[in-house]
Each structure stands twice: as C-alpha cells, then as structure tokens.
Amino acid sequence: MQYDLTDLRLFAAIAEEANLTRGAARAHLAASSASHRLAKLEESLGVALFERHARGLRPTRAGEALLGHARQVFAQLEQMHADLSPFARGVRAQVSLYANTNAINCFLPDDLGEFLRAAPHIRVTMKEMTSPEILRCVTSGEAEIGVVAGTVPADALIAHPYRRDRIVLVTPPCHPMSARARVRISEVLDQPFVMLHAGSAFHTGLMNYVAETGGRLDVRIEVRSFEAVLRMAGAGVGLGLVPRSAAERFGRQRPFAIVDVDEPWASRDLSIVVRRNASLSAHAQSLVDALLASQPDHMPDAKRREEKNCKHSPY
C-alpha cells in the first residue's frame, strides 16, 4: 500500500487541531478537499481514524497508532533533509565523532567550535554514547573518532590523551559531607541524589557501576544538564555527581561544596581513540590533530597510555 505524504500531514494536522477545518487550513487545503482525502484514507486503511466528541474530533485507537507512525515518518524526513542540505551548500566532508557525556558537555563545544570555524566545509556527525559503546563503534568502523573515559586496549585501537577530569560529589555548603576532602560512594548511598537524566551516557555509566558494587543510588530527581544538577544540589534538593570540569565551568555563581569521590572509576582521563589498522580520512585526521592541539601540556605521554590494557571506565 502506498501512502501520500499530503494525506499523512493532513491527518496529523486534524489530530493536533481536533478540528477538520483548522487542520485543513494548516495543510493548506480547502475543508471539502480535506474531508474527501480523509475519507479516502480511512477507506484505504479499512478503519475509522477519528470519532466525534463535544470538543471536536478525537483520534480512535487506530488513529493514535497512525499518528505515532506519521510523526516518525516526518522526523525521518526532516533528518534526511538535514543530512542532504550540506551537499546543496557545498559541504562535502563528513566526519563521525562519538563521545561520552563528559566530553560533549565540558570540552568538545569550545574545541569543535574553533575547528569548524577554521573548516566550514566539514560536517561533524556526533553521537553521545557510553565509553564501551564508543569503543565498539570505533572498532567496527561505524565511527571514525571516539572520545572515551579511561584507558583502552591497545590491540585494536590507538588512544591519544585528550583531557583529565574527575567525578566529584556536590553538596550544599552546610551538608555534613561538605567539609570532607574525599568520600567513598558507599558512604552516601543513603542520601537522595540529583542525577543527569536517564538515557544519558553519564547516568547509565554511574548507575551501572554502583549496581555492580551491590549498591543503588536513591535518585530523587533527574535533570537535563550538569548545570541543573549543580543548582539543585547547591539548593539542597539532593547530592550531585558531576565531572569537576562541569563544577568549575557552570558553578561559579552558585554556592556548593565539592568533595572528591574516592573510587577508581571516578578518574576521568579522556582519550581520543581511532582504529589502529585503518587510515583516517584527511578531514577526520585534521579534526584529531585539532583536538590534540587543544590539550593541556601536562597530559601524560600518549604512548604510555596506549600501552596500558586495563578496564576502561563504564561511561
């Protein structure tokens, strides 16, 4: 069966407006034409898509199902347009960069901004993932470049030092833990936490690690950014776990205490990883070079990092 995009857009507009006339206007159709198209769509599907009620039209269960699929189709079309539009503007180079939450929020914005200003013809496809997921994607060739936390096996990947960071506990200034220099995570499992939202690589990694040790974080509230975690924690909503770089970047105007987390996984040595036995495209190599040029001078030697073969960070 073939679907007409005009019919799907009309159907979605009517569903969202709960009114045929307003939906038709949104779809730039006359009401009579819209009514005819809707009737033909229902006939071809063999189901009723709307039912009348006091406030207008309401999708049936079949209509709700179609509406969900229609929205997915529109989203995919928008993504297709976004992916193709750079070619119309003369942008030809594509580089895939997968990174964890820490890198995306704290380091890559400035570094990518500087790189892309100097290379406007390059388009970067970036995805946020956990470090293990990134390692798999770079190893398989799905991603050209990855930014991960911790050291990586040296057999398939080359790791270049990028940034050094550390997970810290954030508390209100008056909290009993605020005077501590460091804390074990087991000491605060009875406290409520403010966390970055579920689905983020940072959230997934932390929750998995704590679960592996037999504990569980009592998550009181989830928010969409490290800055929100800091503000909530400073206000006493709950304790927060964030990278130190985020606390320093976003927390200058909010009073809170920072306590080091005394756990092996709290170390956040970020590395740029690429496949060992694969040649990068010239554009990908230029991005790697730019990211490496931005690193602080005190980062450890890349070869020493590369030769290590210990367990990488879960995020």
SSE layout and pairing:
Elements: H1 5-17, H2 20-26, H3 31-45, E1 50-53, E2 56-59, H4 61-88, E3 93-99, H5 101-106, H6 108-118, E4 122-128, H7 131-140, E5 145-149, E6 157-171, E7 182-183, E8 192-196, H8 201-212, E9 218-223, H9 226-234, E10 239-243, H10 244-250, E11 257-261, E12 267-275, H11 282-293, H12 302-307
Parallel strand pairs: 3-4, 3-5, 7-11, 8-9, 8-10
Antiparallel strand pairs: 1-2, 5-12, 6-10, 6-11, 6-12
Helix pairs in contact: 1-2, 1-4, 2-3
Write up what this structure looks like.
The chain is an alpha/beta fold. It has two domains: 5-88, Winged helix-like DNA-binding domain superfamily/Winged helix DNA-binding domain (Arc Repressor Mutant, subunit A); 93-315, D-Maltodextrin-Binding Protein, domain 2 (3-Layer(aba) Sandwich). Helices cover 43% and strands 23% of the residues. The protein has twelve helices and twelve strands. It has helices at residues 5-17, 20-26, 31-45, 61-88, 101-106, 108-118, 131-140, 201-212, 226-234, 244-250, 282-293, 302-307, and strands spanning 50-53, 56-59, 93-99, 122-128, 145-149, 157-171, 182-183, 192-196, 218-223, 239-243, 257-261, 267-275. The strands form two sheets. Strands 3, 4, 5, 6, 7, 8, 9, 10, 11 and 12 form a ten-stranded mixed sheet that branches. Belongs to the LysR transcriptional regulatory family. Pfam families: HTH_1, LysR_substrate. This is LysR family transcriptional regulator. One of its GO terms (molecular function) is DNA binding.
